[in-house]
C-alpha cells in the first residue's frame, strides 16, 4: 500500500520556479531514493511534506487521505520525521538535549525530566556506538563536536521521532565509511519493521546500496521512477540530463589580451580544511570553472586563495610571483579579488550608502585617508554603469536595492582598480535572470582585458555556458577536467555523481 503520495506539487519564489511538477509515491517498508542535480527541486519537494514550505499547487495524500500540512508541527503529528540538509542543532545544548529537542520530556509541565531524557537519548546514542568518535557523549555540548559528529546528532534526532515516515536529505555528506555503514544497517532494520524512508543522496554507490526505488527530478519536474534492481548508474544519469545532451557551445572568444600574456594564477598541491592536493593554473584571459556537487571543496579553495581561510600545504603564484595571503587585506594588495554569493555575510554593509559599499576596496588598495565624495563617485560610476546597476542616487542605502543590484554593487567594488585575478564564489546566487546576463557579459569582457577568472557556480548550466574549462570537484579534490568536446552536461554529471 502507498503510504505517501504527492501529485503535481508546485512552488515558486517570485520569478524563480523551484518546483514545476513534483510527483512522488512512497510505499510502506521501502527506501525510496530521490535524486537530481543542484537546484532540481528535491529539497523543495521534501520541505513541502515536512510542512516547512507551503506549495502553490498540488496535493499530498497520506494513507489514502488528502492532507493539508500547515507546518512542521502538523507534519510531525501526521507521523513524518525529517533530516534537513542544513543542520538545526542548538550549539550550547548537550547531545542528549538536541536528540530530544523537538519533544523534550517534561516533569510537571515546567521542568525537563532529566531521567527520561537520559534514557531516551541513550537508546539513540547506543545505535552508533563504536563509530561516533572520541568525545561523543550524552552530556557533550554540540559546539565541541566535529562536523561528522554533529551530523550524527541530527540523524539521531530524526530517528528519535519514531515516525512511520522518515525523510533524510543528504544525511551522509559529512560521515565516514564506518558511520555510513552503521546508518544503513539501521535503515534496513527500520525498513524491515515496515517504516517508509525517503533518501536523498548524491553518492551513486549509496543509492544503489540502500535504495529499493529511485525517482529522478530534473529542472523542477519528476521525470522517471525505476526499481533499483532494474537500472544502473549511466541510465540514472541520462535521466537527470535528458534525451538531448550536446556539447555546449564554447563561450564566445575573448578579444585579444593586450600587453603581456601568460599565467594569471597557478596553484600546486593546495591542501586545507575541506580540500586536498588541488592543482591548476589559469591563463590571463581565461575563465576556469569549478564544478561538482555543492560543498565538495570549491568554496573552501577560493576562500583559501583569498586569505579568508588558512591552507596547510601547497604553493600559489600570481602572475608568476609566489603568493600566500595570510588575510584578505594581503590578497587585495596583491590584486586578488573575491566575490561571494552570500552577500549578506561577505558582501554588503547593511544600512550604509551605496557609495560606501562600492569603494572600500579602492580605499584599501590606495591607502586613502581623506574622503573626497565627488572623486569617489566618478571612480564608482564606470563599474556601476558597466554592470547596468539600477539605483536612484549613490547616497541611497544599499538596502533600497534589489538583491541583483546589491550583488552588482559588490562586484563593482572590485573593478574600480582592476585586479589580476577574480575569484567568483557562486556569485549569481539569488539574483534574477537579467542580472545574471549582465554579470556574465561583463565577466567575458574582463577576461578579454586580461583578468584570470575562477568561477564556481552551483548551477551547471552557468558553468557550461561561461567557463572555458571545468574542473570537477569531489570530496575536496579535482577528479576530472572537462574541456572542448568533453564539456557536456552528461560528462559533468557523470564526473560529479559517479565519483561521489
UniProtKB/TrEMBL annotation:
Residues 4-244, 257-500 form the ABC transporter domain. Belongs to the ABC transporter superfamily. This is Sugar ABC transporter ATP-binding protein. Keywords: ATP-binding, Cell membrane, Membrane, Nucleotide-binding, Repeat, Sugar transport, Translocase, Transport. It holds the Pfam family ABC_tran. The keyword DNA repair does not apply. It comes from the Bacteria. GO terms for molecular function: ATP binding. PROSITE patterns: ABC_TRANSPORTER_1 (PS00211), ABC_TRANSPORTER_2 (PS50893). InterPro entries: AAA+_ATPase (IPR003593), ABC_carbohydrate_import_ATPase (IPR050107), ABC_transporter-like_ATP-bd (IPR003439), ABC_transporter-like_CS (IPR017871), P-loop_NTPase (IPR027417).
